[in-house]
Amino acid sequence: MLDTRLIRSAFIGSLIILGAFVAVPAQTVREDTQFGPVVRAYLGYLRNEQEVVDDRASRREINAAYYRRNSNRIRALRQMAMRIARETENDYLPELEAVAGDELRLLFEHPPRFQTLKVGEVVQTTFRYLGVVRSGDSFYIFARLDPYEQAELLQRAAPITANASGSMVSNPVSSTKVSTRVRRVSTP
After folding, report:
1. Around Cβ 76, how many Cβ atoms within 10 Å?
2. Beta carbons of 81 and 38 less than 8 angstroms apart
3. Rounded distance, CA 148 to CA 143, Å?
4. Is-contact 116 146, C-beta < 8 A?
5. Residue 156 host element (H or E)
6. CB 143 within 8 A of CB 127
7. What is the pTM of this model?
8. Angle, alpha carbons 140-181-112 (nearest 5°)
9. Cβ(92)–Cβ(183) under 8 Å?
10. 126 contacts 150 by C-beta, under 8 angstroms
């Protein structure tokens, strides 16, 4: 009788554990269907990155601190990507970078003080600050500006100088024509 109870308990326990593993991917699939193909692809990329980190941890190639930091970074990028997609209702994501406060030197030669960053602020004509996501650590999320946005910023910031004949001209670097890119909107 004791053996039967033990076997039954083990069977029920394994069903509960199996159900937990099956429920998580189903929830992720349902969550992803609300986005267009570009956002879904990015979320899939982040899932794959998490699998790589999980695999490396299971083979003991990385330590627990590295695993935790990278898993939290992936989670922060996922949260920001989904927030952008929901707020803009657009199937477009900029190139996102997530760095902790002690990693700002990875993006910037002269890192800004993260305490003074304002959401939407452009930093060194390369990145736009999107905000902070607390996922274990605090990650500062930046969107890399595309070349058109960078050219437009340089054009606006270009000083007007005098040429050899004394007439005023704009900086030749900024005289390139700036065009905007059409962004696709996902349809249900």
Report:
1. 24
2. no
3. 14
4. no
5. helix 147-157
6. yes
7. 0.66
8. 25
9. yes
10. yes
Digit-coded pLDDT (tens) for 151-164: 888 888 766 554 45
CA distances from 63 to 54, 56, 68, 130, 139 (A): 11, 9, 9, 30, 20
What is the CB neighbour count within 10 angstroms for residue 68? Answer: 15
10-residue block means of pLDDT along the chain (188 residues)?
Answer: 56 50 48 85 97 95 94 96 94 94 89 88 91 91 90 77 45 37 47
Residue 40 tokens read as 């879904």
The Cα–Cα gap between 104 and 141 comes to 11
Judge contact between 73 and 102, C-beta under 8 A: no
- Residue that has been written with the tokens 């650590």 in this structure: 137
Q: Which of 125, 79, 73, 61 is nearest to 100 (CA)?
A: 73
- 15: tokens are 């069903």
**Any idea what DSSP says for residue 118?**
-
Tokens of 133: 């996501």
Asked whether the beta carbons of 89 and 148 are under 8 A apart, the reply is no
Going by the DSSP 8-state scheme, the letter that residue 173 receives in this structure is G
